[in-house]
From TrEMBL, chain A:
The chain crosses the membrane at residues 88-108, 128-150, 181-207, 227-250, 257-277, 311-330. This is ABC transporter permease. Residues 1-18 have a biased composition (Low complexity). Residues 1-56 are annotated as: Disordered. The keyword Plastid does not apply. Pfam families: ABC2_membrane_2. Keywords: Membrane, Transmembrane, Transmembrane helix.
TrEMBL record, chain B:
Keywords: ATP-binding, Nucleotide-binding, Transport. PANTHER family: ABC TRANSPORTER, ATP-BINDING PROTEIN. Residues 23-251 form the ABC transporter domain. It comes from Nonomuraea antimicrobica. This is ABC transporter ATP-binding protein. Belongs to the ABC transporter superfamily.
């Protein structure tokens, strides 16, 4: 900060300052860093004047600037997303569900001796609650949360009018879209992680820790169990990232964010319905939600890497397809909002 | 003002790359889907260092033109150049206010400006805090910097939008209806601010339908009508097209008309309690003397110069939304 402040008087001395022309001059404080600043950054920084920067000023900027600027915009985006009360509330709800499930199972488990399979599994080991929570949430609640953030991403800015100012800044269309998508992906992983951590903590408090008995009957160590949870988080997060690509694509087609959000959610629900119709089993593999539950492959012994890989491939295809649609639409769109 | 620009640029030893025009458009046309032509073959030339008034009735294509210049809307045909640079390089040097303020209601003024600063790849993170504080101070929002945008009044919102346009060092300021929603005090402040910015050599492109405002602020102006440019030039040349008239208020209109005609004035029009005529180089005091000498009771005498408004109404016809 001090170096930046130091750069000001140097500029103020050479030209008329645009910003605060009367104040903000600290004569005598011509810093050593001045030359470094001048070459390192764009010229208007040392001279907040109307002057035209030298032609070469953009060259160093091109070397160091874009990456830093990209992260800065992404940081700003994440700050908006994770500080927004609505999004925080969704994360809180998602964190609460595993606690509710855990407490409920604990009550059932202690009162009833004739326990069912899953309940027995969960009651028998603290780690199983995570997988149970995923299978409860991955089909609806988690997609809802991701749809809200992804569907709102571009449409929300367009609806609020802030999109025109972002693009005039200029944020750059491809750059802004990339930031928006990465933001939605990070949120998708945050959703997944929140569920996993909440379930893990609840499970450890309410149920006995120790070696985990898998679906296939074999037993693995607790450390191995934690590793498998991490793999499941990675897989479910990727599933949410694929869904986010759909939300983002829909978001570029409208200025009403609720439309893009609802559209994404309706798509998820329609897919569930189609999957439930036995006659349509043939199209099931092409539907995104079909692959959401494949995270249970980590509960096989050994881990079913094939099922996971297949799912990831589908997610990749969805991201590519809908990412392209979003880009094609957004890069040529007239912003009239 | 052009001289100021070059002087300030001198330490870098670089001449403005685009010569003396901040904005040039050639045959710029936008036809929206549905066939509506918003902007039709616009040839605009905004000199560097000018305060350029962009005038026209509502719906005459002003905002669409500004959106094209900012890269928000793609032209159907024609070319444009801003600061003589490729768009990605030009836009960081352009501060813009387009169709009113738009911010995140749940963020404070400071946080909002930080957000838009983050979107500009040419803005340095290290100086962002200072630049945001400066910009807020310039528009008189320092006291409300920490308040949520949601709680801002309309005037404060407009000010914040101007502050956003002033976030970085700008060579061109594009202000679309900058005084919308401001009280008279705020309007004066904006005018003063524009003059101050222009005095630094920054080119200011102001779209407005408030003619008096443009007349007071601008050095140049262009007039749009239904997507077409009907006139552009300096304010003086635009209003110079019409001649000044003398207006005599008197109960003896007929006699006054005779005197004026006798002095050789053209287009003498007696209208009830007043007579008007083209002044055309006659000295008003002589005319007054002649009237009094002839026994005409002169109650009032004035030289009426055509205002920009008269010019605009003449050029844009009826339906011009003069006072918004």
């Amino acid at each position: 900060m001090s170096t930046a402040d130091g750069a000001t008087p140097a500029g103020g001395a050479t030209g008329t300052t645009t910003l605060g022309s009367q104040a903000r001059r600290t004569p005598g404080l011509v810093p050593v860093t001045e030359t470094m600043r001048t070459t390192e950054r764009r010229a208007p920084e040392p001279t907040p004047a109307v002057s035209v920067p030298p032609a070469g000023a953009s060259v160093p900027e091109a070397v160091t600037g874009p990456v830093g600027a990209f992260w800065r915009l992404l940081g700003s985006e994440l700050g908006l997303t994770f500080r927004r009360p609505r999004n925080v509330a969704m994360l809180a709800v998602l964190a609460a569900v595993p606690i509710v499930i855990g407490v409920a199972l604990r009550i059932i488990g202690s009162s009833d001796d004739g326990m069912g399979g899953i309940i027995q599994d969960v009651a028998g080991n603290s780690l199983m609650l995570t997988f149970l929570s995923f299978s409860f949430l991955v089909m609806l609640l988690m997609p809802v949360a991701v749809s809200v953030v992804a569907g709102d991403s571009v449409a929300g800015e367009a609806g609020g009018g802030t999109l025109r100012y972002l693009l005039a800044a200029p944020a750059g269309r491809t750059r802004l879209l990339a930031v928006k998508y990465l933001n939605a992906v990070v949120f998708g992983y945050a959703v997944t992680a929140v569920v996993a951590v909440s379930a893990l903590v609840t499970g450890l408090i309410l149920f006995p820790a120790g070696p985990v008995t898998l679906l296939s009957g074999s037993t693995i160590s607790m450390a191995d169990g934690l590793l498998r949870i991490a793999v499941a988080v990675g897989y479910v997060g990727a599933a949410m990232a694929a869904l986010a690509a759909i939300g983002l694509a829909l978001s570029t087609f409208t200025e009403v964010s609720i439309g893009a959000i609802a559209g994404t959610m309706v798509l998820v629900i329609v897919c569930q319905v189609l999957r439930a119709i036995p006659d349509l089993a043939a199209i099931s593999p092409y539907l995104l939600p079909t692959w959401f539950t494949n995270f249970d492959a980590v509960l096989r012994s050994p881990m079913d890497a094939g099922a996971l890989g297949e799912g990831l491939l589908v997610f990749g295809a969805y991201i590519l397809l809908f990412g392209s649609i979003a880009w094609a639409r957004f890069s040529g769109k007239d912003i009239t909002s | 003002m052009t001289a100021v620009t070059q002087e300030a640029g001198a330490p870098f030893g670089a001449a403005p790359p685009s010569g003396d025009a901040a904005i040039v458009t050639e045959g710029l046309t936008k036809r929206f889907r549905g066939g509506q032509v918003a902007v039709d073959a616009l040839d605009l030339s905004v000199p560097r260092g000018s305060v350029f008034g962009f005038l026209g009735p509502n719906g005459s294509g002003k905002t669409t033109t500004i959106r094209m210049l900012l890269g928000l809307v793609a032209p159907t045909s024609g070319d444009y150049s801003v600061l003589g640079l490729p768009q990605a390089q030009a836009l960081p040097k352009v501060g813009a206010l387009v169709e009113g303020p738009a911010f995140y209601p749940y963020l404070s003024g400071t946080a909002n400006l930080m957000r838009f600063d983050a979107a500009d790849p040419a803005a340095a993170r290290s100086t962002a805090g200072r630049r945001v504080t400066d910009a807020l101070e310039r528009v008189g929002l320092s006291a409300a910097a920490g308040k949520r945008y949601r709680n801002y009044s309309l005037g404060m919102r407009q000010r914040l939008a101007i502050a956003a346009a002033l976030l970085g060092p700008r060579e061109l300021l594009v202000l679309d209806e900058p005084t919308n929603g401001l009280d008279p005090q705020g309007t004066r402040e904006v005018r003063a601010l524009v003059k101050e910015i222009a005095a630094d050599g920054t080119t200011v492109f102001v779209s407005s339908h408030l003619l008096a405002e443009v007349e007071q602020m601008c050095t140049h102006a262009a007039i749009m009508r239904t997507g077409r440019l009907v006139a552009q030039g300096t304010i003086a040349s635009l209003s110079g097209g019409r001649v000044a008239r003398i207006r005599v208020e008197t109960p003896d209109a007929a006699q006054a008309a005779r005197v004026l005609a006798g002095l050789g004035l053209d287009d003498v029009r007696p209208e009830g309690g007043r007579v008007t005529a083209e002044l055309a180089g006659h000295a008003p005091e002589r005319i007054n003397a002649a009237l009094v000498e002839d026994g005409v009771a002169v109650r009032g005498l004035a030289v009426v110069r055509p205002s920009l408004e008269d010019v605009f109404v003449g050029l844009t016809g009826e339906g011009f939304d003069v006072d918004g």
